[in-house]
Amino acid sequence: MDPDQLRERSPLLVLAAGVVLFAAAVAHHGQELSALEVSTGPLAALLLDGLPALGLAYAGYWLFRSELPPWGMWTTVVWSLSGTLLLVGVMGATFLVRLSEGRPLAEPVFPLLIAAEAGGIAGLAAGYYNVRAQADARRSRTATNALAFINNLIRHDLRNDLNVIQGHADLLSESAADVGAGDPAVVAEKTDEALSRIETSKVIADTLIGDPDLEPIDLVPVVAEMAARISNTVAATVETDLPDSAVVSANDGVQSVVDNLLENAVEHNDADDPRVAVAVTAGHDVVRLTVTDNGPGIPDERKETVFEPGEGGSGGGLSLVYTLVTGYGGDVWIEDAEPRGTRFVVELPRADGEPEP
């Protein structure tokens, strides 16, 4: 069982704690009923500590059925159990003080049960709202990163495309018959790229803010196109090892995943003969993309932070890769290449259907 599955089942600990506390309350007050002639007090006490125990058990069930992410469930459970231990510890400390003073203790079980249940419920409520606050903060940061990336895309990539278009258009307007005049094919190509970037920016933004509309996408032609584009624009050798097809569940933003990984592989490559190897492997449940370079590599101390915003180059390209891949339900990590260099490994969920033509 992986850590996420354990976290998803952690609310059962709260449910079990509530059941145990309720059973303890029933057993304790049942003994009181059999020992005392008056039943009003024990029954009232059972209501006071039995109902909160049942409430704590239900809260654990509700948390188990909630839509909180695994980390959020685990955090809420830790807060709940910590609240129980804290109040029981405080109440127990007061009893120890009384014992040290030689005072008799009058029925310590009842207040300890109340303390345990109150601490568990209060801790669960505090933990839940803490998780909600963290989730809201994460969504805010994600939205900010999405806007920053779209801004970078429009200002940098799209401006470059438009500059090329403008240059060739000026040459065409001067004299289409002159040798060396602007090439209409370049104008058309860059116009298509600019329009594609505008369309892609929407699906990237949707994915970054957590509302992606996923569809079957064949990763192979995407990788082939991006690899050819890099080969034609930089002085680096790009080798590909591609199957006939590898359909993943993603959207058009997957182009940015491949594009940023390839650009990162060549941008930081200081080898005399820079080389990049790109491979796609279709497994039963996932499709694996690997991008390997022969550059200087990434130090171990940076491997944990390279996907954070601000790392991996201007515009947070690697941060975008991580956010998009995880938004598709996939994973990405870094490995050392031999004899030198870096290997980025991306795993994306394999789609059941075929991509639309």
Which features characterize this protein?
357 residues; Heat Shock Protein 90; 5-stranded mixed β-sheet; two-stranded antiparallel ribbon; 9 helices; elongated
Describe this structure in words.
With 357 residues, this protein is α+β, with helices and mostly antiparallel strands. It folds into 3 domains: 3-141; 145-208; 215-349, Heat Shock Protein 90 (2-Layer Sandwich). The chain has helices spanning 3-9, 11-35, 40-65, 70-100, 109-174, 184-208, 219-233, 254-267, 317-327, and strands at 215-218, 237-241, 247-250, 275-282, 286-293, 331-336, 342-349. A 5-stranded mixed β-sheet has the order 2-4-5-7-6. It has a two-stranded antiparallel ribbon with strand order 1-3. Helix 8 runs antiparallel to helix 9 (317-327). The chain is elongated. The two termini are 39 Å apart. Residues 311-315 have low confidence and may be disordered.
Largest sheet: 5 strands, mixed
What is the overall pLDDT average? 83
What is the domain total for the residues? 3
Order of helices and strands: HHHHHHEHEEHEEHEE
Give me the count of strands. Answer: 7
Q: What would you call the structural class? A: alpha+beta
| Tally of contiguous helical segments | 9
Helicity, in percent? 55-70%
Strand order of the largest sheet: 2-4-5-7-6
Beta-strand percentage range: 5-15%
The Rg value, from CA coordinates, equals 30 Å
Q: How would you sum up the global shape?
A: elongated
Distance between the termini: 39 Å
The stretches of 5 or more residues where confidence is low (pLDDT under 50) are: 311-315
